[in-house]
Amino acid sequence: MTAPASSSSSSSSSFLPGADGWVPAARRVPSPNFDARPDGMPVDLVVLHNISLPPGQFGSGDIEAFFQNRLDPDKHPFFATIHQIQVSAHFLVTRSGELVQFVPCTQRAWHAGQSEFFGRARCNDFSIGIEIEGTDDVPFTAAQYNTTAALVRALRAAYPVQAIAGHSDIAPGRKTDPGPHFDWNRFARLAGVAPNLLPYRPSHD
């Protein structure tokens, strides 16, 4: 298992995507749910999500199964409602801080759905999606902040990232993640992100 990143290792080259779009620090779990980005489309947005499967439960391995179209509809009542949905994200950060990668950064993962960012529709075209294992109701772990920050630092070094948004920012009214327990100020400090890169800022600084 990949060790959680510390803030002191957040510039490690192991988080830099290779030419093929895969990150050496991540455990690869390839998803079939992706396609090509539009020709010449720069990757300039990072989108943060939260996810838990079954809802509110952690560490089951079902997120990986979901993104690989292997979810057992008989395992949990909720799974019967989603097992035929084909979605993915580029990355998952588990509760322990392990980094898992499903789709190379060079390709278009299916994470954002119907979305718009400052007038630009179809955010999947130009974004990288990071799922953080969690819910709207539970604080995230220190290991998750460290790994997510290390990854975002590397993505900013590799691609012309101009902004970092929550799923709720690009699909307001439809999505609420990463939720009120995601500490944007803490993340920004660890990732070395300037406030102007964050479209969402908490009201309590």
From TrEMBL:
Its EC number(s): 3.5.1.28
Residue stretches of biased makeup (Low complexity): 1-14
Gene3D superfamilies, per the entry: Peptidoglycan recognition protein-like
One CC-aspect GO term: cytoplasm
Domain N-acetylmuramoyl-L-alanine amidase: 31-179
Region described as Disordered: spans on this chain: 1-20
Record-given protein name: 1,6-anhydro-N-acetylmuramyl-L-alanine amidase AmpD
UniProt cofactor(s): Zn(2+)
Catalytic activity field: Hydrolyzes the link between N-acetylmuramoyl residues and L-amino acid residues in certain cell-wall glycopeptides
The entry's keywords: Cell wall biogenesis/degradation, Cytoplasm, Hydrolase, Metal-binding, Zinc
GO biological process, one term: cell wall organization
Molecular function per GO: metal ion binding; N-acetylmuramoyl-L-alanine amidase activity
Organism: Cupriavidus taiwanensis (strain DSM 17343 / BCRC 17206 / CCUG 44338 / CIP 107171 / LMG 19424 / R1) (Ralstonia taiwanensis (strain LMG 19424))
Keyword Metal-binding on entry: yes
Family under the similarity heading: Belongs to the N-acetylmuramoyl-L-alanine amidase 2 family.
Name of one Pfam family that matches: Amidase_2
